[in-house]
From TrEMBL:
Keyword field: Cell membrane, Membrane, Transmembrane, Transmembrane helix, Transport
Chain segments annotated as transmembrane: 76-96, 103-121, 156-183, 195-213, 219-236, 248-266
Gene Ontology CC terms, in alphabetical order: plasma membrane
Protein name listed in UniProt: Probable membrane transporter protein
Membrane topology: Multi-pass membrane protein
Amino acid sequence: MLPTLTWPHVWLLIASLLAGALNAMAGGGSFLSFPAVLGTGMLPIQANATNTVALWPGQFASIAAYWDDLKHNLRLLAPLGAAALLGGLAGGLVLLRTGQATFLRLVPWLLLVAALLFAVSTPVSRWLQRRAAARETARLVSGSTLPAGRVSMTPLFLGMVLVCFYIGYFGAGAGFLVMSLLAIFGVEEINQINALKVVTTCLANGIAVVTFVIEKQVLWQTCLLMMVTAAIGGYFGGRWARRVDARVMRGVVVAIGLGMAGYFFWRGV
C-alpha cells in the first residue's frame, strides 16, 4: 500500500528526482532528499537510513564507468575496501545507537559541515588537476617515464577508516575527503583518484545500507519510490552533465546545502 500523497510526499518525489540528477552531475543530492524525507514526519535516524538506501544503487551503478581507471590500482582495492567496510560499518552502527533527539540536533551541523566540504572541494580539485599537469609536464621535459609515486599505505588506510566512519554516519560531502587522502598519500592521476573515490564511498555506504536493512531502519514504501525517481533523475543528470558548467553546479550544491543548514538552524531542531 502506497503512502498517502500529501504535499510532503509529492515534494519528496520531486526532491529525489532532483537528487538523482545532482548526484550524476556534481554530487550533493542528499541536501535535497534527506530534508525531504524528514519533512514527511519520519524519525530522523530512519530518515537518514532510508535516504542512504534509496540513493545507494545509483552510486553502485556508476562504478562501471570507472573500470578502465581502476585497473591501474588493483593493489589498492583490497586495503581501501577493508577501510571502507570497517569505517562504514562503525559509522552506521554508531548512527543507530544515537538517540533520535540527539541526531536531530546534529542535523543542521551535519548539513553545514557537508556544505563547507563541497565548497572546499573546488579548490582541492583544481590543486589535484595542477598537480597532475605538473607531473605530465615534467615527464615530457625529461623525455622519460617518471616512476609512479609511492603510496603511503598505513596512513592512507587509517585516514580512510575515519572518513568512511563519517560516510556511514551521514556522508554528504565526503567524496572530497576521500580524494584528498588519496592524493596526499601517493595516488597522482586525477582519473584514478576519481575511480578509487567512487569505489570507496560506494563500499562504505553499501555496508551501512546492509546494517540499516538488517536493523529494520528503512521505510521501504518511501525508499522504493525514492529509488525509482532518483534513478530517473540520475539518467537525465548523466545526459546533461557535460552540458553544464561544473563550477556552476558546485555553486548550486553549496547554496542548497547552506540553505538547508540555515533552515534547520532557524527551526531550532
